[in-house]
């Protein structure tokens, strides 16, 4: 994150035609001034580290790469990202070297095909967000178990900042929940939201198209306008269509993950990459341009009205010392640092829920999953005094934790 902020700040100086003070920036980011200067010379990317010429660093994985290349929908970029993720200690070369490696060894992925590109329309900062679903993604894990899900994809039209949220279904409740999460993560509201005639927004009754009022009431409470593009004219939301190019990287993980937590981590990695890589049109990473666009977003405004518009989808509660919040009558653990802070618990149909504290997603509970997140369990068992000053020594806190976890297990 610090690297993205550094690159974004340098890009803003570059756009303004100002040469920055490398020593001052280095002090704030905890880097050497020569390192900051190297980032400045890289013009929006990472400084070259000599790895681009080492195509041979992939030789040990040639069989894996050839197998991944046969997967439906996979891309070269997706395979490269998968290699960097799965083999972080091997100091593998960059993407240019990887394409050279594939060309040298005659490994090709399927042609991307697709329709002819449409003209691009630029929009001012803060005006428009385009969104859609990537529907019915099917992936098998290492044990052959099939996982099916959808991904809500939203893209700010000016900065190309992407947000990806996994959802089990595509109901109106799911859509409203994803809209709420998008606003929380952006820290503001784009003025118009553009999509197609999805069933969560439009119902067909007696041959007539009727708006689903629940979604439009939420839009009104949040302060944005919902706009539906004409049927068979996806170019109207062409910027969010490009998000499928990033989500196609999921294909490289076919047969190479464990469960829902792993899928969520992979989606988060893909989102991070989509926002840190320079955009082909703007030439800048979306995260850098978002620094400018964020100030142009509408303020969230009346959160209470927004939550009332969501009905029983959202509830607000202060995180207790037990680190457990509840929704659907079920407990869900959050991090120790959230104790005493107000949390917004977003309930999903079917029993799933998300928890936001200060606009940050701090916990996700999958329907039917354990109440205690493994990371929060480890934090509690490490001797953190999350019961407060009255907890006594570390052993007493750990014993109390075990008792709490036993009681939770017996009540589920």
Automatic annotation (TrEMBL):
<dbReference type="GO" id="GO:0003676">
    <property type="term" value="F:nucleic acid binding"/>
</dbReference>
<dbReference type="InterPro" id="IPR012337">
    <property type="entry name" value="RNaseH-like_sf"/>
</dbReference>
<dbReference type="Pfam" id="PF00665">
    <property type="entry name" value="rve"/>
</dbReference>
<dbReference type="InterPro" id="IPR001584">
    <property type="entry name" value="Integrase_cat-core"/>
</dbReference>
<feature type="domain" description="Integrase catalytic">
    <location>
        <begin position="120"/>
        <end position="294"/>
    </location>
</feature>
<dbReference type="GO" id="GO:0015074">
    <property type="term" value="P:DNA integration"/>
</dbReference>
<dbReference type="InterPro" id="IPR036397">
    <property type="entry name" value="RNaseH_sf"/>
</dbReference>
<protein>
    <recommendedName>
        <fullName>Integrase catalytic domain-containing protein</fullName>
    </recommendedName>
</protein>
């Amino acid at each position: 994150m610090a690297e993205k902020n550094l690159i974004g700040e340098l890009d803003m100086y570059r756009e303004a035609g100002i040469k920055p003070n490398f020593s001052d920036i280095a002090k704030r980011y905890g880097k050497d001034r020569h390192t900051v200067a190297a980032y400045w010379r890289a013009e929006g990317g990472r400084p070259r580290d000599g790895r681009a010429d080492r195509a041979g660093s992939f030789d040990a994985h040639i069989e894996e790469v050839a197998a991944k290349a046969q997967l439906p929908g996979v891309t070269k970029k997706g395979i490269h990202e998968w290699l960097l993720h799965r083999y972080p200690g091997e100091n593998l070369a960059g993407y240019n070297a990887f394409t050279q490696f594939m060309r040298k060894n005659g490994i090709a992925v399927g042609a991307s095909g697709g329709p002819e590109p449409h003209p691009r329309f630029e929009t001012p900062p803060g005006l428009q967000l385009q969104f859609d679903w990537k529907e019915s993604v099917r992936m098998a894990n290492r044990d052959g178990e099939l996982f099916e899900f959808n991904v809500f994809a939203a893209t700010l039209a000016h900065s190309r900042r992407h947000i990806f949220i996994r959802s089990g279904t595509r109901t109106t409740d799911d859509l409203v929940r994803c809209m709420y999460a998008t606003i929380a993560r952006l820290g503001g509201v784009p003025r118009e939201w553009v999509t197609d005639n999805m069933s969560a927004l439009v119902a067909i009754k007696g041959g007539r198209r009727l708006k689903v009022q629940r979604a439009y009431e939420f839009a009104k409470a949040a302060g944005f306008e919902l706009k539906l593009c004409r049927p068979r004219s996806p170019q109207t939301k062409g910027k969010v269509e490009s998000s499928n190019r990033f989500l196609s990287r999921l294909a490289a993980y076919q047969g190479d993950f464990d469960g829902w937590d792993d899928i969520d981590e992979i989606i988060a990695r893909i989102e991070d990459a989509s926002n840190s890589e320079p955009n082909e049109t703007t030439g800048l990473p979306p995260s850098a341009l978002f620094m400018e666009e964020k100030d142009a977003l509408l303020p969230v405004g009346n959160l209470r009205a927004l939550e009332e518009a969501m009905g029983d989808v959202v509830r607000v509660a202060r995180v207790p010392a037990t680190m457990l919040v509840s929704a659907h009558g079920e407990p869900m653990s959050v991090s120790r640092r959230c104790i005493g802070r107000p949390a917004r618990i977003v309930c999903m149909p079917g029993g799933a829920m998300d928890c936001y504290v200060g606009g940050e997603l701090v916990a996700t509970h999958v329907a039917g999953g354990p109440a205690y997140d493994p990371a929060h369990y480890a934090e509690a068992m490490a001797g953190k005094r999350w019961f407060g000053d009255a907890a006594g020594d570390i052993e007493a806190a750990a014993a109390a934790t075990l008792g709490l976890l036993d009681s939770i297990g017996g009540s589920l």
